[in-house]
Amino acid sequence: MIVYFTRHGESLLNVAERTGQPEPEDGDHLSERGWEQARGLGERLKGEGIERIIASPYGRAQETAQGIGEVLDLGYEVDEDLHEAVQSDAYRAVSPKFNGEGHITWMPKSAPDHAEAGAESFSDILGRVSRVMERLEERVESERILCVSHWGFIHYFTGAALFREAFSPEHLPALYRMGHVNTGITMFTQRRDYFIEGERFDGWALHTWNDQAHL
Fold it and tell me: What DSSP assignment string belongs to the chain?
């Protein structure tokens, strides 16, 4: 039982960050290249049997879902929990230089429930991931689903799948060393009665990370 995840296409914010520019007012929209990536991803997913597209509430994710859907002749629904990890006020204030204000600086050294001003805590983000997992688990037997989300959220979903109940802020630096490109495809499986060397390995598992053969 496979669930497909993709990061949204290139956004105007991505372009600004890459070129060292301040965040533009329309940063939550796709660039022209982002639209091309979204439609190209739709072509790549032809034949995969995708029946449902679920997008984050952010504009760049919904536009990506729209571009994919144009090719696959599918609409999309929105899951409010699929959005990107919310950074602190301090992080946003120093964009695009960040200066050590991001999650990856303070979160690994903090308690799971701690959050800098304006940010989500590790527990907040993991709570969203858990809710998404529960909802997907109810649907994966009957639907082939593509979720359009974000760089950080997909890393947290991966951490929850790999480390299960042991997932903690200390795991984040290792997870963040796993690169992830715009419209890269990551696949997770939901397994039951699955054994390796006599040990049970049921539940969510990482199947494919960041497939970018279509780019």
Answer: -EEEEEEPPPBHHHHHHHTTPPPPTTTTSB-HHHHHHHHHHHHHHTTS---EEEE-SSHHHHHHHHHHHHHHT---EE-GGGSPPPPPHHHHHTTTT-TT-SHHHHGGGS-TT---TTSPPHHHHHHHHHHHHHHHHTTTTT--EEEEE-HHHHHHHHHHHHHGGG--GGGHHHHHTS---TT-EEEEEEESS-EETTEE--EEEEEEEEE-TT-
